């Protein structure tokens, strides 16, 4: 099916699942993009995955156009907006070709189709699974999510730090399509495949530290955190896991125990795993020790030594910049002092970089800001451009402590997710997206600091790169204003900007757009945020 002339308006909600097929030009562009980007990681791995022409040469264009299981299933031409080249539309290199990079509302939000789907959702989906916005996605490209009513929303959340390279980046789409047409699953622990190995090689190369490393792949962030703990316990022969106030590590039983916040993550879901000790965090805005990171580390170490004993600690798990807990950057010196204490006491230092990692903060990993080299790094989210994949990477001596067969899972390191990861990593490296994220951070930060000068409710502006936040208090006090954060976020949602909140006290608005978002789109979204504040403070 050639979808060049098809519009959303002709498709019922159920039809969106079969939005396949694109015009020949678009296929060609996707193939060319894939060709350009596939020339690296994995030593020609992607090449291997592709069919060969009679001459024996890999033919990526053929692979895409003649795949019998469906042509490129990328976003459809965007008939609701003027096509690229028209005034006011920037043709962003990271957008799917047909998704105009512009906020554009054609209905109130949620629109009629979203409301219909919400009714079906209420009848079919368990109510414990909530959604921030009542708007259903139909497709996405670059920094834009298009809903089922044709509204174009600016994405300042990246699906919680996942689509760091942008939505539907051609290289990722093509990598996924190539792989799924070859095989979707064998189970790496039954018959292995090269993609898994290539992702591990890339992670071993990219994570901090020039010692010998090994990696193991999983599905979710929580699963990887659990495995880091298993590996650390096995390597040390010790039990206790040290975590911190405001930490978020996941929703499985062990990771709920490691997560600090009760509602909504833990309430009524216990009993939780034992041998988890929570130490005090450095939280400069609210901590009497303020910006003295060394003192905050000494306080945590003193608690650990007196209440657990260094000799019982298997690992210390820390987010270098806290995510769900409020985008808290610990005071300078806090993380290096803890890392040094771990080394001195043979405790495995685990950096949970699930949210802060993968080119989000102006470095590949947030640990690098202070030159910290973790023993193990946990990654997920941004690693695979939207496919579920996570990993534990670190010192070979620790990683190899688990006995053969002790680490695994049916779907861990799924080949399609690995292909997506190779394409996402290639995109980050070839296009210098670490640096792009750093520049984006400067732009974000200067805007947010200006905003803080106007609104005394903004108690703090913090974060790095494309991971920035404002914390809202009642002016002149330390009292968190979660109500204001919720109202500001809701105003953004109603005006076509996906904005997320976070924080132990629910009073933080976090900005984590794709690092590839265009300047125009970011400026427009920030203008909406400023308007939201102006309207909601009163
Ligand atoms: N570690 C640092 O941020 C996931 C949670 C969303 P999973 N954060 C988003 C929600 O409400 O469930 C996260 C994280 C850090 C671990 C995790 C867990 O990653 O892939 O959600 O399991």
From TrEMBL:
It holds the Pfam family Aminotran_3. It is an enzyme of class 2 (transferase). Its EC number is 2.6.1.19, 2.6.1.22. SUPFAM superfamilies: PLP-dependent transferases. It catalyses: (S)-3-amino-2-methylpropanoate + 2-oxoglutarate = 2-methyl-3-oxopropanoate + L-glutamate; 4-aminobutanoate + 2-oxoglutarate = succinate semialdehyde + L-glutamate. Pathway: Amino-acid degradation; 4-aminobutanoate degradation. InterPro entries: 4NH2But_aminotransferase_bac, Aminotrans_3, Aminotrans_3_PPA_site, Class-III_PLP-dep_AT, PyrdxlP-dep_Trfase, PyrdxlP-dep_Trfase_major, PyrdxlP-dep_Trfase_small. Keywords: Aminotransferase, Pyridoxal phosphate, Transferase. Its cofactor is pyridoxal 5'-phosphate. It comes from the Bacteria. Belongs to the class-III pyridoxal-phosphate-dependent aminotransferase family. PANTHER family: AMINOTRANSFERASE CLASS III (PTHR11986). This is (S)-3-amino-2-methylpropionate transaminase. It comes from Kineosporia mesophila. The gene is gabT_1.
């Amino acid at each position: 099916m050639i979808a060049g002339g098809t519009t959303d308006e002709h498709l019922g909600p159920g039809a969106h699942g079969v939005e396949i097929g694109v015009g020949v030009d678009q296929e060609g562009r996707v193939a060319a993009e894939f060709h350009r980007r596939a020339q690296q990681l994995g030593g020609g791995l992607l090449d291997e995955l592709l069919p060969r022409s009679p001459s024996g040469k890999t033919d990526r264009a053929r692979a895409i156009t003649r795949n019998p299981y469906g042509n490129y299933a990328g976003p459809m031409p965007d008939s609701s907006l003027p096509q690229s080249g028209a005034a006011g539309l920037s043709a962003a290199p990271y957008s799917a070709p047909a998704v105009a990079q512009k906020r554009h509302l054609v209905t109130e939000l949620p629109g009629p189709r979203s409301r219909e789907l919400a009714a079906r959702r209420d009848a079919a989906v368990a109510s414990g699974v909530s959604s921030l916005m009542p708007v259903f996605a139909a497709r996405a490209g670059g920094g834009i999510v298009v809903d089922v009513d044709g509204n174009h929303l600016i994405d300042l959340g990246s699906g919680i730090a996942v689509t760091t390279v942008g939505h539907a980046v051609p290289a990722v789409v093509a990598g996924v399509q190539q792989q799924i047409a070859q095989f979707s699953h064998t189970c790496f622990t039954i018959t292995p495949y090269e993609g898994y190995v290539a992702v591990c090689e890339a992670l071993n190369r990219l994570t901090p530290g020039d010692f010998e490393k090994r990696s193991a792949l999983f599905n979710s962030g929580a699963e990887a955190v659990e495995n880091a703990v298993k590996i650390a316990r096995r390597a040390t022969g010790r039990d206790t896991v040290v975590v911190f106030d405001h930490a978020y590590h996941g929703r499985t039983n062990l990771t709920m125990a490691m997560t600090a916040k009760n509602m909504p993550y833990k309430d009524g879901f216990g009993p939780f795993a034992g041998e988890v000790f929570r130490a005090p965090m450095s939280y400069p805005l609210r901590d009497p020790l303020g910006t003295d990171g060394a003192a905050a580390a000494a306080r945590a170490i003193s608690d650990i030594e007196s209440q657990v004993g260094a000799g019982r600690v298997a690992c210390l798990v820390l987010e270098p910049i806290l995510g769900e807990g409020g985008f808290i950057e610990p005071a300078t010196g806090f993380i290096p002092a803890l890392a040094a204490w771990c080394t001195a006491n043979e405790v495995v230092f685990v950096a949970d970089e699930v949210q802060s990692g993968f080119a989000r903060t102006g470095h590949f990993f947030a640990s690098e800001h202070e030159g910290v080299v973790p023993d193990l790094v946990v990654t997920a989210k941004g690693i695979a451009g939207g496919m579920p994949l996570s990993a534990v990477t670190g010192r070979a001596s620790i990683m190899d402590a688990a006995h053969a067969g002790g680490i695994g899972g049916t779907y861990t390191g799924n080949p399609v997710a690995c292909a997506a990861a190779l394409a996402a990593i290639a995109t980050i490296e070839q296009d210098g997206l670490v640096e792009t994220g750093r520049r984006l951070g400067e732009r974000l930060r200067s805007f947010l600091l200006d905003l803080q000068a106007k609104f005394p409710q903004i108690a703090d502006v913090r974060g790095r790169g494309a991971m920035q936040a404002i914390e809202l208090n009642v002016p002149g006090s330390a009292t968190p204003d979660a109500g204001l954060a919720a109202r500001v976020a809701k105003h953004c949602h109603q005006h076509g900007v996906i904005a997320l909140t976070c924080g132990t006290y629910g009073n933080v608005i976090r900005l984590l757009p794709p690092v590839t978002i265009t300047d125009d789109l970011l400026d427009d979204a920030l203008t909406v945020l400023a308007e939201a504040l102006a309207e909601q403070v009163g």
